[in-house]
Design goal:
About 50% of the residues lie in helices and about 10% in strands. Helix 5 runs parallel beside helix 7, helix 8 crosses helix 9 and helix 12 packs across helix 14. The protein is built from 14 helices and eight strands. The protein folds into three domains: about 160 residues, Rossmann fold; about 80 residues, Helicase, Ruva Protein, domain 3 (Orthogonal Bundle); about 60 residues, Orthogonal Bundle (Arc Repressor Mutant, subunit A). Strand 3, helix 5 and strand 4 form a beta-alpha-beta unit. The chain binds a DNA duplex through helix 14.
DNA sequence: CTTCCACCGGAACCGTGGGAAA
DNA sequence: TTTCCCACGGTTCCGGTGGAAG
């Protein structure tokens, strides 16, 4: 049944993007000066999860790079790089400017001079830019004359107030491209393109796609995870066609898939905190700290735990409710 | 209504370790 | 080699604040 598993994986970059014609045009227009050797505005790309932000950014930049000799690009997810230096290192490697660099022990300035030394215009995609903790880093990047930033983040309305002042002002000054959730019909269409690319023709009934789209509620990442799990399940059972009744069975597996992508980035102590909250579903701050201290051999300080909990919240793995003495940490699902 | 204090989060500080300069 | 520098991952300190208890 599965003819090309890659097409169902989360990182797959399709050859054509559907239902994003407007944003594609917008982004392309903002980046256009680069193809004529001029510099372009920095860009902030926002939208809810599963709206295709990352895919869109990579798609547009890849096309630009293919059409223009003097443009090079790099992509990084700020979530998975804990420090400024590791983020710069990764980006330089991606851009093809750091093959000879080692990952540690080099001052920031050295990396930045690499950027300036390049004859090409550079476009860097920084995914989840709101977790960049060092404001000085973005400022420094802004000052590089031949560097255009394409910053990607979820569209929390509280975003600009929650991040550092200096970061916020950088984000505000960038050209803003906003993505909406996919509609039901758009998502059905996207899923059927993926099914065509990855599954035997005719193996997915139309009404199953519609159900998946319904469950995913505009979130393409979840929709594709559902499709992938449905196909795997059917494959295991030796079925030739995905059945409509399948969805309830595989929904939680698909949601686990999406969650596991995030959990994979956690350190062991972050993981302990997350596991406790997931086990208990809902814990007061006091209880959580007590449980954590009982479970872990060398507990981190309270302040450090709060930082970990912050990052869990940014990953959308947990939710913090209430304030002050009635703070609770909640896991839903 | 007032008081208390658990919790949050900013800021300053610290020990370690690798690299570069002397 | 020794010394200096700097990033990193933490901790310590502390002021603000709003729920909860009195």
């Amino acid at each position: 049944m599965i003819t090309d598993a890659r097409a169902l994986r989360p990182e797959y970059l399709p050859r054509e993007l559907h239902h994003r014609e407007g944003p594609i045009q917008h982004l392309t227009a903002v980046l256009k000066p680069l193809s004529q050797g001029y510099s372009a505005e920095n860009i902030l790309l926002t939208g809810p999860s599963g709206a295709g932000k990352t895919t869109l950014a990579r798609y547009v930049v890849e096309r630009l790079e293919a059409q223009t000799l003097a443009v090079r690009s790099g992509y990084v997810n700020a979530m998975s790089e804990s420090t400024a230096v590791s983020l710069l290192y990764r980006l330089l490697r991606e851009t093809g400017l750091g093959a000879d660099l080692r990952p540690e022990g080099i001052p920031q300035g050295e990396y930045l001079s690499r950027v300036r030394a390049s004859d090409d215009e550079l476009v860097w995609i920084i995914d989840e830019v709101d977790v960049v903790t060092e404001p000085a880093l973005l400022e420094a990047l802004y000052e590089q004359p031949n560097l255009t930033l394409l910053m990607v983040t979820v569209d929390h309305n509280d975003l600009l107030s929650s991040v550092d002042q200096r970061v916020a002002s950088r984000l505000r000054s960038a050209e803003h491209v906003r993505l909406e959730k996919y509609t039901h019909d758009e998502l059905v269409d996207i899923l059927s393109h993926r099914a065509d690319a990855g599954l035997k023709p005719g193996s997915v009934p139309e009404d199953l796609l519609s159900q998946i789209a319904e469950t995913a509620a505009g979130d393409a990442r979840l929709g594709i995870a559902l499709l992938r799990q449905a196909a795997r399940h059917a494959d295991r059972e030796g079925g030739k066609r995905l059945s409509t009744g399948l969805l309830r069975e595989i929904e939680s597996e698909a949601r686990d898939d999406v969650e596991n992508l995030q959990v994979a980035h956690l350190s062991t102590h972050q993981r302990h905190l997350f596991d406790l909250i997931r086990e208990h579903r809902n814990l007061s701050a006091g209880d959580l700290h007590e449980l954590y201290e009982g479970r872990v051999r060398a507990p981190k300080s309270k302040r450090t735990r709060r930082r970990y909990l912050d990052s869990l919240e940014r990953y959308d793995l947990i939710e913090k409710r209430g304030a002050k003495r009635s703070t609770r940490y909640v896991y839903e699902r």
